[in-house]
Design goal:
It is built from 3 helices and 7 strands; from the N terminus they run H-H-E-E-E-E-E-E-E-H. With about 160 residues, it is an alpha+beta fold. The strands form 2 sheets. A 5-stranded antiparallel beta sheet has the order 6-3-2-1-7, with no helix packed on it. Strands 4-5 form a two-stranded antiparallel ribbon.
């Protein structure tokens, strides 16, 4: 018994991608438009956003105030031992305040005991504190537990 199978073989050769010009976007000419020309256009995202803001101004206001979580910082001081959630990461408070580079409200800079952080105290080009590489983190005050050693009671 013999079975017949119909098939097609297609081979495609593309010389356009040789040299990598499709992968390297710096070689692609970019479309540019001046601010004045863009403002003259209708149906742009900028016009849509302006229209939405005029209809509902509260939707475009910052939802967090500058003193967001300030009350939680009242008992947190630089030098305090702490534990950061999630993950029960232990460390020392190195910064308490409102960093411009991060979102509004108060933040706590922590130097972790182990390299569990993201930086060395330099965040978005601004130095908030100094610590070894990958030992620093900026967290919201509600994630920080302060005490002599807040984690000792769990380990006993």
């Amino acid at each position: 018994m013999r079975t017949s199978v119909n098939s097609i073989r297609l081979e495609l050769y593309d010389d356009l991608t040789s040299g990598g010009w499709l992968e390297d976007t710096s070689l692609v000419e970019k479309y540019t438009i001046s601010e004045d020309e863009y403002d003259k256009r209708s149906g742009t995202f900028r016009k849509f956003k302006e229209k939405m803001a005029s209809q509902n101004p509260s939707a475009f206001r910052n939802k967090m105030s500058d003193d967001y979580m300030e009350d939680l910082c009242a008992n947190i001081k630089v030098g305090d031992r702490c534990e950061v959630e999630p993950g029960e990461k232990k460390g020392v408070v190195k910064y308490v305040g409102r960093p411009e580079a991060l979102g509004p409200g108060f933040w706590i800079g922590v130097q972790y005991d182990e390299p569990l952080g993201k930086h060395d105290g330099l965040v978005k080009g601004t130095r908030y504190f100094q610590c070894p590489p990958l030992c620093g983190g900026m967290v919201r005050p509600d994630k920080v537990k302060i005490g002599e050693d807040p984690f000792e009671e769990d380990e006993i």
